[in-house]
Amino acid sequence: MAVGLEVSPRRVRRWHPISEKLKIVKLSLQPGVSVAEVARAYGVNANQVFTWRRAFERGELSEPSVALIPVTVSNPEEEKREPEAAPPSAGGSIHIELPGRALISVESGADPSLLRSILESLGQ
Prior knowledge:
Elements: H1 18-28, H2 35-42, H3 46-57, H4 76-80, E1 93-98, E2 102-107, H5 112-122
Antiparallel strand pairs: 1-2
Helix pairs in contact: 1-3, 2-3
């Protein structure tokens, strides 16, 4: 006697763009809206919506954007120098501080493409 087993097709992992995740999260955050109903309407699991909501609340779910940030230029050596002193040498360093996120020190001769990659990753 053979027993027939039903095998369900393997689920395909879906990729959702950030814009879609944000739309779903914002809808689910409206007063009186059921997360389960929003999830069902968009064909996702309610647990996934809750995960996206937590990421949104932590500021981890946002569209990548290019923005200008305030820059302060300071040279502690310049404050010590006399006006007729020689200009500083070609060496030096740059310190970039993103409060609460990162402090980056870039020395003279640093690889520009590596620096660009680091700064782009911090912008995400």
